[in-house]
Amino acid sequence: MGKDFHYTILPFIEKALDGHDKVKMFRKEETDENIFYSIKRYGKSDIRIWISDTYIFTINDYFQKPKGIDFIYIAKPEAKYNQDEVVEAAYRDGINIGKFGALMGVLYVNDIKKYIPKERRDNE
Predict the structure, then answer these.
(1) 52-91: string of b/e by CB count within 10 Å (b at 16+)?
(2) What whole-number distance in Å separates Cα of residue 48 and Cα of residue 72?
């Protein structure tokens, strides 16, 4: 895991966060290996997201996640994640995971771990 992103991905996220009606402000945090966004929301608790650069996010990737996160954003549009194992483990830890639509959706809810994005809903 790391910071192997197409140069358009982070500006795309930042533009979306900047234009989201529930985002009061956000701050990008970068370490040698990871990128995070701390987000202050209007009328909701603050959240911290971790940006994953993997193509296939597995349970092993999940167990190597950094601490102190609320949401794992699978940033590459073509990426996949194991929706059963990873989602169950994340739910137990109070974390949600998903792609762009999921990230935009969790910004509206109080308990983000309970939000089920369209990508994981049955027959919708």
Answers:
(1) bbbeebeeebbeebeeebbbbbbbbeeeebbeeebbebbe
(2) 9
Please, which residues bridge with residue 28 across strands?
A: 37
Q: pLDDT by residue (tens digit) across 28-67? A: 999 988 999 999 999 999 999 999 988 999 999 999 999 9
User: How far apart (Å, rounded) are the C-alpha atoms in residues 18 and 36?
Assistant: 15
Single-letter amino acid, residue 113: K
Strands (E), the chain: 23-30, 35-41, 47-52, 56-57, 71-74, 80-81, 96-98
φ/ψ of 52, rounded to 5, equals -95, 135
Claim: this prediction has a pTM higher than 0.70:
yes
Going by C-alpha positions, the residue among 25, 9, 8, 5 that lies closest to residue 17 is 25
Beta strands in 61-101 (DSSP E): 71-74, 80-81, 96-98
**What sign for the dihedral angle of Cα 91, 2, 15, 83?**
negative
